[in-house]
Design a protein that fits this description.
The chain has 218 residues and is of the alpha/beta class. 25% of the residues lie in helices and 22% in strands. The chain binds the ligand Nc1nc2c(c(=O)[nH]1)N(C=O)[C@@H](CNc1ccc(C(=O)N[C@@H](CCC(=O)O)C(=O)O)cc1)CN2 and adenosine-5'-triphosphate.
């Protein structure tokens, strides 16, 4: 078992290597791959029947573009504390609402907690409909369903906060450009890291088999 210090160094090196490779992917390729991924997502049974879906709004570069994905009830992340790496997911109510969101860190569009003077539905609150699916961004995934993010732990903490409120864990679906999918075991994992259930690439949908004894609520 590697030490935490060693693990975060390994992750840092891996992030650097993948980011350098992603920087060379032409925008046209990101667009074409993203369209194919959006098409493949529609074939996931849980996506078809989902109530609430959380989806990130993509940055211009280096990740799967989420513009072509259409969902009915959409929740979008907003960073609420940089010091503590916390984010919430707020509901988006219409196409115009989505279009008019202001840009935050790294040019990522984020919802204001208020919409039209009223509080938006917050996925972490009990009275809000269940999130059935979370579509996650990453720097990379591997074929054993590990995820490497930007190193702040926003999603790990969000999923922990969500499930700690006694709610069923949403299906975790990682969206991956070809250049972001690494071989099995390539990404080191800590106790805090959540594996994803599904990885969608332009070429395939990888589905993780549940480990024996794994609870559906964890
Ligand atoms: N499109 C998209 N949305 C997303 C994510 C993502 O990866 N992609 N996130 C996935 O987690 C969360 C935001 N992730 C973030 C990660 C780091 C920093 C941050 O504090 N950056 C530092 C600079 C760090 C650096 O460049 O070295 C800063 O702005 O001061 C902010 C947001 C939520 N929304
Ligand atoms: N639930 C949690 N509670 C406390 N600390 C956490 C939790 N989840 C992650 N962390 C810590 O957050 C830091 C960043 O984690 P990690 O390097 O795995 O981020 P990441 O998954 O790559 O990034 P992100 O989720 O932002 O895309 C690590 O120090 C990790 O120990």
């Amino acid at each position: 078992m590697p030490s935490l210090q060693c693990l975060s160094k390994q992750k840092r090196l891996l992030r650097k290597a993948v980011s350098a490779c992603l920087g060379r992917v032409p925008t046209a390729s990101i667009d074409a791959q993203s369209n194919e991924i959006a098409r493949r997502i529609q074939a996931i049974p849980e996506f078809k029947t989902a109530g609430g879906i959380s989806c990130y709004l993509s940055m211009p570069l280096n990740e799967v573009a989420t513009g072509p994905i259409t969902t009915h009830r959409l929740f979008v992340p907003k960073i609420t504390s940089k010091e503590n790496s916390l984010m919430d997911c707020f509901e988006i109510y219409s196409e115009e609402d989505l279009e008019s969101l202001p840009s935050g860190t790294w040019g990522i569009k984020e919802p204001d907690p208020l919409y039209d003077g009223k509080a938006r539905a917050n996925a972490l609150e009990e009275q809000t409909e269940q999130l059935d699916v979370i579509l996650l961004p990453a720097v990379a995934y591997d074929r054993s369903f590990s995820r490497l993010g930007h190193g702040k732990g926003y999603y790990d903490r969000f999923i922990a906060a969500y499930t700690s409120r006694g709610r069923r864990r949403p299906l975790l679906v990682g969206l991956s450009l070809r250049e972001q999918l690494l071989e099995s075991g390539a990404i080191p994992m800590s106790d805090f890291d959540w594996k994803v259930d599904v990885v969608v690439t332009p070429d395939e949908i990888l589905v993780r088999e549940k480990e024996r004894g794994e609870s559906t609520t964890q």
